[in-house]
UniProtKB/TrEMBL annotation:
<keyword id="KW-0560">Oxidoreductase</keyword>
<protein>
    <recommendedName>
        <fullName>3-oxoacyl-[acyl-carrier-protein] reductase FabG</fullName>
    </recommendedName>
</protein>
<dbReference type="GO" id="GO:0004316">
    <property type="term" value="F:3-oxoacyl-[acyl-carrier-protein] reductase (NADPH) activity"/>
</dbReference>
<comment type="function">
    <text>Catalyzes the NADPH-dependent reduction of beta-ketoacyl-ACP substrates to beta-hydroxyacyl-ACP products, the first reductive step in the elongation cycle of fatty acid biosynthesis.</text>
</comment>
<keyword id="KW-0521">NADP</keyword>
<dbReference type="InterPro" id="IPR036291">
    <property type="entry name" value="NAD(P)-bd_dom_sf"/>
</dbReference>
<dbReference type="InterPro" id="IPR002347">
    <property type="entry name" value="SDR_fam"/>
</dbReference>
<dbReference type="Pfam" id="PF13561">
    <property type="entry name" value="adh_short_C2"/>
</dbReference>
<comment type="similarity">
    <text>Belongs to the short-chain dehydrogenases/reductases (SDR) family.</text>
</comment>
């Protein structure tokens, strides 16, 4: 087993998570790339990282499912070693809709997928990192969204509210574990070029909205990855319970 720093990136096979996995691997971390169903994308990324001399494993786990989360963390314990960083990134949204057309099934599935999952992964990370449990500390970075501030009217208030919950989780947990060697922060990306907008039914969403972004463009996953990496690094050692907005000024 190596003495490398170890990071788990949920939803690490595509989009922001994949860019984050590549950056952490380049910086010398052993990376757990978690994915839910797109094994092809996760395995392709793992091959690229290994070809560049990095260390990584892929772990299929639905992070909204408690048993899967427990299995993922124990796989990392066994195969990579002591966890240093958790990046809670896995998330999803549904087709753009007004609230009066949302079913309970839709709302519940967004909340379980985007909120319960972050709580479960934080729980497993804290059990391993906290000095209260014999750990040596660590860092958690949650990927929230600018939607937590905008509310995403006419598109996905359910998704926006799930991200509001992540802001509150970040604040509460950061204070709960601050004296136990763990820092907890979050990034709040704005419009980033990934597959997520197509999942909402509008692949060209950023094109439609880019004129209202002060920087006049969408962001790239690699730009979000840099902020996540900074929050995970010692360079942000006095930061906890904070939100870093990455929205081109929006
Ligand atoms: P993406 O390209 O659609 O990727 C989403 C990733 O999450 C995929 O790897 C997917 O796994 C994984 N995932 C979803 N549900 C999961 C679950 N239950 N268990 C495990 N993995 C799961 O999206 P993205 O844009 O990179 O989004 C990453 C994060 O950034 C999300 O939390 C999102 O809300 C947030 N965000 C994105 C934007 C944006 O404009 N793109 C803006 C603000 C915030 P599979 O590959 O197996 O499907």
């Amino acid at each position: 087993m190596s003495t490398q720093r170890v990071v788990i990136i949920t939803g690490g096979g595509r989009g922001i998570g994949a860019a984050t996995a590549q950056l952490f691997a380049k910086e010398g971390y052993a990376v757990c790339i978690n994915y839910k169903s797109n094994s092809e994308s996760a395995n392709r990324l793992a091959q690229t990282i290994k070809a560049d001399g990095g260390q990584c494993i892929t772990v299929q786990a639905d992070v909204s499912c408690e048993d899967d989360v427990i299995r993922m963390f124990s796989t990392v314990d066994k195969e990579l070693g002591t966890l240093s960083v958790l990046v809670n990134n896995a998330g999803m949204l549904k087709t753009q809709s007004r609230l009066e057309d949302m079913t309970a099934d839709r709302i519940n599935s967004i909340l379980v997928n985007n909120v319960t999952s972050y709580f479960l992964c934080c729980r497993e990370a804290v059990k391993r990192m906290s000095t209260r449990h014999g750990g040596v500390g660590g860092v958690i970075v949650n990927v929230s969204s600018g939607a937590a501030r905008s509310g995403s009217p006419n598109e996905y208030i359910d998704y926006a509210a799930s991200k509001g919950a992540i802001d509150t989780l970040t604040k509460g947990l950061s204070l709960e574990v601050a004296a136990e060697g763990i820092r907890v922060n979050c990034v709040r990306p704005g419009l980033i070029h990934t597959d997520m907008h197509a999942d909402g039914g509008e692949p060209e969403r950023i094109e439609r909205l880019k004129d209202v972004i002060p920087l006049k463009r969408g962001g790239q996953p690699a730009e979000v990855a840099e902020a996540i990496y900074w929050l995970a690094s010692e360079k942000s050692s006095f930061s906890t319970g904070n939100y870093l907005d990455l929205a081109g000024g929006l």
